[in-house]
Amino acid sequence: xxxxxxxxxxxxxxxxxxxxxxxxxxxxxxxxxxxxxxxxxxxxxxxxxxxxxxxxxxxxxxxxxxxxxxxxxxxxxxxxxxxxxxxxxxxxxxxxxxxxxxxxxxxxxxxxxxxxxxxxxxxxxxxxxxxxxxxxxxxxxxxxxxxxxxxxxxxxxxxxxxxxxxxxxxxxxxxxxxxxxxxxxxxxxxxxxxxxxxxxxxxxxxxxxxxxxxxxxxxxxxxxxxxxxxxxxxxxxxxxxxxxxxxxxxxxxxxxxxxxxxxxxxxxxxxxxxxxxxxxxx
Length: 282
Known about the structure:
Layout: E1 3-8, H1 15-21, E2 23-26, E3 29-32, E4 35-38, H2 45-52, E5 60-62, H3 66-77, E6 82-87, H4 95-101, E7 110-115, H5 120-135, H6 140-151, E8 155-159, H7 164-168, E9 188-192, E10 195-200, H8 205-220, E11 225-231, H9 235-248, E12 252-258, H10 261-267, E13 272-278
Parallel strand pairs: 1-2, 1-6, 6-7, 11-12
Antiparallel strand pairs: 3-4, 3-5, 8-9, 8-13, 9-10, 11-13
């Protein structure tokens, strides 16, 4: 059974990896000053941060149209028997539900949507693993079981310079827990039950990053991990952090990724994150 792997643009999987593994992507949209851009197609991440720096109101983001899903799945149906469609958390976007709605529209291929319950490159970890298994001829339902196993060890923590992006965009649950303590605080956030919630309030960026390092260290003591440093237009700092972490954790395979236009709209420039998952297939 031949299985296609689809993810959306918010996984920010590099083009060379997508080409190597045969991963298909459906873009989300960002609207700036009334003009809509397909993420990673019409708008690069560098251009996005340049265009939106200091801009009020914030850009708007939207999920792919159902017709986009339909067109992609119909194209894949000509070559594949099934498609596993891996998307950002259904708690912050309707993209996953769009994939589910396409099941009744495109009957010529078995569509298996997967809710990553997370976003950015940790979502990409799922797509990469799924594509590796699909290329090995693994049954699509067995691939979904593997992805569910990955969820048990998938972690991601991130900090933002300015919470107003998340609050105004309606993507932060539990924001009331931070009311009264927002000034000079760099809250650490994470996903719980598909939504973004506060983890801890930290006074400085340096201390917040150190706290996230400590969280990684707890998991990295006795197992192999794949990990990613994720940045919102802070590439040099991300590389420095990666190099520091590599020295501390030789059993962890690190990469650097970024918060692109859609996720960057809600986190804001300057956000930093660290995600990891137990290495599979070893």
